[in-house]
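Fill in residues.
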């Protein structure tokens, strides 16, 4: 699964970093970034994406089909 954060949408709420700290972190601009896309299982990454209040986390399958949002 490919994980991407749209920095233009991200407001730095940080819920993704709480749910999947192995995968996401906030950078110096307090925007979420993917630090290790394989750091957690897919279910945990999906939960983190769903927790984003502005839906800034995009998930794609191996063929590039969007899974979320």
């Amino acid at each position: 699964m490919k994980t991407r954060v749209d920095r233009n949408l991200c407001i730095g709420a940080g819920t993704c970093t709480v749910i999947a700290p192995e995968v996401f972190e906030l950078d110096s601009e307090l925007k979420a970034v993917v630090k290790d896309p394989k750091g957690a299982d897919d279910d945990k990454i999906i939960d983190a994406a769903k927790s984003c209040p502005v839906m800034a986390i995009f998930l794609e399958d191996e063929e590039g089909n969007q899974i979320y949002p």
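Residues 16 and 48 are 5 Å apart (CA to CA).
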